[in-house]
Design brief:
Largest sheet: 7 strands, parallel
Strand content: 15-25%
Radius of gyration: 17 Å
Bound molecules: NADP nicotinamide-adenine-dinucleotide phosphate
Oligomer: single chain
Number of strands: 9
Strand order of the largest sheet: 3-2-1-4-5-6-7
Helix content: 40-55%
Number of helices: 8
Length: 255
């Protein structure tokens, strides 16, 4: 029977690339996000490539909406073996002394509480499959801080804490927990969301960086972890572009 993978934040970037890749690996993918028009296009693309997927409208900040995702998982055509908690993002690059409380609240709600809500809702199905995997897409910001990143790094540190805690709590049960920590990934929307639609500021992040990671690179890491034999638990996978040795150490050319 086909295994089912759930990907949150599947309407763009890393989530969309992961949905495509996991469908190509043979999973039936439940692609979840708020923008259903994007999801419908993604599902059509996956089907055209010979895979199967279902679009599920889901706002991870709403318990009711997440309950709808769990209901969709129950109706899915196979055991739910994989959950990719990917929905998230950053808002603002302000110092702690002047950061907007609303931006911090948004980041905490989507990245941290979103992961909590979705994981709680799907854990029974993952465990019932007998071979479940929970992937949490945190970030190198989950273990490093940088100026202006206070709200985002606080949220990603919290997601990293969830991954570590959950792995301890689930020890002895058939659900592994994998944390993926990407560095700089050039996706279409991450910077636009961070800088409130300012394309110039978003582009400046990647200026002069030869070959930043792209969404498909991270999807490749997620797929690799998820397709290891189930007794192999990749606790944490840190992945950066070659040009980024550390958060503060980025090789840029031509600037
Ligand atoms: N890009 C990077 O450099 C980078 C580096 C490390 C880690 N990450 C992490 O990787 C993940 C994906 O990032 P990305 O670069 O692919 O960003 P992205 O293209 O902006 O994707 C974010 C996704 O999250 C979804 N989302 C936002 N709010 C949501 C909500 N309330 N409910 C459900 N879905 C929601 C968005 O879909 P809708 O708007 O349609 O709901 C979108 O599909 C994030 O957790 C991010 O923090 C990114």
């Amino acid at each position: 029977m086909t295994s089912v993978a759930i990907v949150t934040g599947a309407s763009s970037g890393i989530g969309a690339a992961s949905a495509r890749r996991l469908a190509a690996e043979g999973f039936h993918v439940l692609a979840a996000a708020r923008r259903t028009d994007r999801l419908t296009g993604l599902v059509a693309e996956i089907e055209a490539a010979g895979g199967t997927a279902t679009a599920v409208a889901c706002d991870v900040t709403s318990a009711e909406s997440v309950a709808g995702l769990a209901a969709a998982a129950e109706a899915a055509p196979g055991p739910v073996t994989l959950l990719v908690n990917n929905a998230g993002g950053a808002r603002g690059l302000d110092p702690v002394e002047s950061g907007a409380v609303g931006d911090w609240q948004w980041m905490y709600d989507v990245n941290v509480l979103g992961t909590l809500r979705v994981t709680q809702a799907l854990l029974p199905a993952l465990e019932a499959s007998g071979a479940g995997t929970i992937v949490i897409v945190s970030s190198t910001a989950g273990f490093t801080v940088y100026e202006g990143g206070g709200g985002y790094t606080a949220a990603k540190h919290a997601q990293t804490a969830i991954a570590g805690t959950l792995r301890l709590e689930l020890c002895g049960r058939p659900v592994r927990v994998v944390e993926i920590d990407p560095g700089m990934v050039k996706t279409d929307e991450f910077g636009l969301v961070r800088f409130d639609g300012n394309a110039g500021k978003a582009a400046a992040t990647y200026a002069g960086v030869p070959e930043p990671l792209v969404a498909e690179d991270v999807a490749d890491c997620i797929a690799w972890c998820a397709t290891r034999p189930h007794h192999v638990n990749v606790d944490r996978l840190v992945v950066r572009p070659l040009a980024q040795a550390a958060q503060h150490k980025v090789h840029r050319v031509g600037l």
